[in-house]
Amino acid sequence: MNIKGIGGLTLGADPIADAVAYTSYLKKKSIEAFVVRKSAKSHGTMQWIEGNIAAGDSVVIVDDVITTGKSTIEAIARAKEAGLEIVKVIALIDRQEAGREAIKHWAMTWKRLSREKK
Questions:
Q1: Taking the model in full, what pTM does it have?
Q2: pLDDT tens profile 75-93
Q3: pLDDT tens, 21-48?
Q4: DSSP 98
Q5: Which of 58, 81, 68, 56 is nearest to 6 (CA)?
């Protein structure tokens, strides 16, 4: 998979995106970390998304925990509004409370690394 960036809604996605960016840098296959803000800055760039990515770039949206999917869907929506091409959505933990189903309406490629047992 050839991607330019990885990120999601701050704060949950930040350590994951940063770890991937750092590891990719060490492997000489740099992937940029980016942040999707919960609200646009009221000064400076006034952007929803901060990072070294631009419209047309292929990205992965990440989240730490999916419950209803609201945070992940917000990140997906903001990334699409910015013209980013979302190639995959990854969550570390799926709490199995309908979040996965909600996200599937927004993103074709979805992966969870673990799920909470019910």
A1: 0.89
A2: 999 999 999 999 999 999 9
A3: 999 999 999 999 999 999 887 887 788 9
A4: S
A5: 58
26 and 94 in contact (C-beta within 8 Å)? no
Q: What is the pLDDT of residue 108?
A: 65
Q: What is the distance between the alpha carbons of residues 54 and 116, in angstroms, rounded to a whole number?
A: 35
Strand (E) or helix (H) holding 5: strand 5-9
Which residue has 């995959």 as its token pair? 88
Band the pLDDT of 71: cuts 50, 70, 90. Answer: very high
Q: Are 79 and 71 in contact (CB under 8 A)?
A: no
Six-digit token string for 115: 């799920």
Place of tokens 């909470």: 116
The first and second tokens of residue 66, run together, are 């999916």
Stretch (H or E) spanning 34 = strand 32-36
- In Å, what is the CA distance from 17 to each residue of 49, 60, 95, 118? 13, 9, 21, 28
Contact status, residue 78 vs residue 48, Cβ threshold 8 Å: yes
